[in-house]
Amino acid sequence: MPELPEVETTVRGLASILAGETISRVSVRRADLRRPFPPDLAQALTGARVSGLSRRAKYGLIHTDRARTMVFHLGMSGRWRIDPDEIGKHDHLVLETGNGHVLALNDARRFGSVDLVDDDALDAWAPFAALGPEPLGSGLTAQHLARAFVGRIAAIKLMLLDQRIVAGLGNIYVCEALHRARIHPEREAGTVSLPALKRLVPEIRAVLEESIAAGGSTLRDYARPDGELGYFAKDFLVYGREGDPCACGRPVARVVQGGRSTFFCSVCQK
Ligand SMILES: [Zn+2]
């Protein structure tokens, strides 16, 4: 499943082709993904110039000179393919650019989404309105977390997965950041000290930035040899490593919190 770093890498890869370009042709090849494509999607994008791209949480935004933005979510299995040899049955939306590139949004399981939002309505758009600060932005601070956690007895792991507290942070990155900050994932959020939160915030950023860097810094790196954007191999200290030795020698433990696996070290994390 694409996490924030894959979405960021995908957006950067798309930007290297789309930014400043005109969309010359749009083909919508089925009616819906998770929900219907906007009925005027092809009309709204054909002939539009892409003024820039950005990311909010795990959404990619393609901004146009028509004061409307195409917002995509990759769901469980979505990916953009650049200049594919042929269009396949899971390529549900295909954009062609004025300079001859073809971009195909491929989504075998169709949990993704595509929406068109007026620029002046973006902040208030329902999926964005309740989101907390971006983990890589200046809004995420130890003080922000301390305020959000006051009096809360829920486990810090679960609080960090709450999109209203931090936007777009996934299970893998919460496990890794808590390990690096030496905070036990089952600690009641309200009992975590401010110094511990001050260790945590830079580790959240570092683990995300390292994964984004692993996704490449040039288009040649972003796209795998088959032209597919956004998925790359990553190495983690605890995630997916139950039973492997932590740096301290103790085997990495796994518990289930909120229906999802948490990996941690019971010696290093308190
Ligand atoms: Zn350890």
Features:
270 residues; alpha+beta; four-stranded antiparallel β-sheet; binds zinc ion
Written description of the protein model:
It is a single chain. This protein is an alpha+beta fold and 270 residues long. It has eight helices and ten strands. It has helices at residues 4-18, 41-45, 126-129, 142-149, 156-161, 171-180, 194-214, 219-222; strands spanning 23-28, 50-56, 59-64, 68-73, 79-82, 91-97, 102-106, 113-118, 253-257, 260-264. The strands form three sheets. A four-stranded antiparallel β-sheet has the order 1-6-7-5. Strands 2-3-4-8 form a four-stranded antiparallel β-sheet. Strands 9-10 form a two-stranded antiparallel ribbon. The mean pLDDT is 93. Bound molecules: zinc ion. The site of zinc ion has 7 residues, from loops.
